[in-house]
């Protein structure tokens, strides 16, 4: 089996503790997945990623982005390199998104039809077309352990009618994605090398901010009997309480014996909350994006989370670490004063050290959820 999901226990609140086994390794859930958009988690080398967080456990699984890798360096090149794992020297599990969200973000550069999406590259303006079949073909070439159906992410706010039409397109594209995957899954670059194993295709629940559409989307996708399900179309401008409600409403209709993935969220306190509701997998660019802007996460002795802006003058002579309770390599070695100096000087090392701390903080947060002290 390309994927097994062993549920160990569920708490009264809904928190699930499970083990997800994939062709390139096992993942203990709930898990946070760092985002490596262009086959790199920005500013952080792979060997460092492997040793972040408590007990030196490192990132268990990371993401890469189908849209960006399709444009540069190209999926066929990566296929010839043996797939994205070998290309970027990462031997642990990986997930690729379908490119749907990136195409959604190109609102002025795209045209959507029932067949797919025509869009212009943000790099050079060249014209391209993504159909469900093409998205799956690119993801097979990349070779991540988990791949996603091609979907349409609706804008916020959007009317019920607009959201329902978009959801119908997503369901039709999911069926086409599955059909193409089933016919071609043996073409993944590592198929023979890993004993004939294949990738796993997850569905993506849409439905905007409408509970009735979320339920309908979840029920229709569950009928497709996919190995896992994502909740998409969130963190697109809606209030946090609406995000939480849509997650809660959707989880009610997803299988209890399959992994549940919320895409593109969130701050550390949010991923703690969503894990407690029964979400198994989450990803977000926030740890590294915030780090590059000098925003660092810290945890107080009472367990609450604070944000530290390293740009502030008050840290110019601060000899303390970012977080006295953090065991990451940055907090063990560098002072706030030095980190502020690096940021103020525009030194590239600033982004690296800040990103290492924030990623370690996120990974530790999930380990705290999995194994409370």
Number of strands: 16
Q: How would you sum up the global shape?
A: globular
Task: Work out the helix count.
Answer: 14
Number of domains: 2
How would you name the CATH homologous superfamily of the largest domain?
A: Queuine tRNA-ribosyltransferase-like
Second-tier CATH architecture of the largest domain: Alpha-Beta Barrel
CATH-assigned fold name of the largest domain: TIM Barrel
Radius of gyration: 20 Å
Topology as a string of helices (H) and strands (E): EEEEHEHHHEHEEEHEHEHEHEHEHEEHHH
Give a quick precis of the structure:
This protein has 373 residues and is an alpha/beta fold. It has two domains: 224 residues, Alpha-Beta Barrel (TIM Barrel); 61 residues, no CATH class. The protein contains 14 helices and 16 strands.
């Amino acid at each position: 089996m390309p994927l097994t999901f062993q549920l160990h226990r569920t708490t009264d609140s809904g928190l699930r503790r499970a083990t997800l086994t994939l062709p390139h390794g096992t993942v203990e859930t709930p898990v946070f997945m760092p985002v490596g958009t262009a086959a790199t988690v920005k500013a952080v080398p792979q060997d460092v990623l492997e040793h972040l967080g408590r007990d030196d456990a490192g990132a268990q699984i990371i993401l890469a982005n189908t849209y960006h890798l399709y444009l540069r360096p190209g999926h066929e090149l990566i296929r010839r390199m043996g797939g994205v794992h070998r290309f970027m020297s990462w031997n642990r599990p990986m997930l690729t998104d379908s490119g749907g969200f990136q195409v959604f973000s190109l609102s002025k550069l795209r045209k959507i039809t029932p067949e797919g999406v025509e869009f212009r590259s943000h790099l050079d303006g060249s014209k391209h077309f993504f159909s469900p079949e093409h998205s799956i073909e690119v993801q097979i070439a990349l070779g991540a352990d988990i791949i996603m159906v091609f979907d349409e992410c609706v804008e916020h706010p959007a009317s019920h009618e607009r959201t329902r039409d978009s959801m119908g397109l997503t369901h039709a594209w999911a069926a086409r994605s599955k059909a193409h995957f089933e016919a071609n899954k043996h073409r993944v670059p590592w198929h023979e090398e890993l004993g004939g194993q294949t990738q796993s295709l997850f569905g993506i629940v849409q439905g905007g901010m409408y509970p009735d559409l979320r339920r309908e989307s979840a029920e229709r996708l569950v009928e497709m009997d996919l190995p896992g399900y994502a909740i998409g179309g969130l963190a697109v401008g809606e209030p946090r309480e609406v995000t939480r409600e849509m997650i809660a409403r959707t989880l009610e209709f997803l299988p209890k014996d399959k992994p549940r993935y919320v895409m593109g969220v969130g701050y550390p306190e949010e991923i703690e909350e969503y894990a407690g509701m029964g979400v198994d997998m989450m990803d977000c660019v926030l740890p590294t994006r915030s780090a590059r802007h000098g925003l660092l996460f810290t945890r107080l002795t009472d367990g609450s989370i604070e944000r530290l802006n390293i740009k502030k003058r008050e840290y110019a002579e601060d000899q303390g670490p970012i977080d006295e309770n953090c065991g990451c390599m940055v907090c063990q070695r560098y002072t706030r004063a030095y980190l502020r100096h690096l940021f103020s000087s525009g030194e590239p090392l600033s982004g690296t050290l800040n990103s290492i701390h924030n990623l370690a903080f996120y990974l530790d947060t999930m380990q705290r959820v999995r194994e409370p002290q």
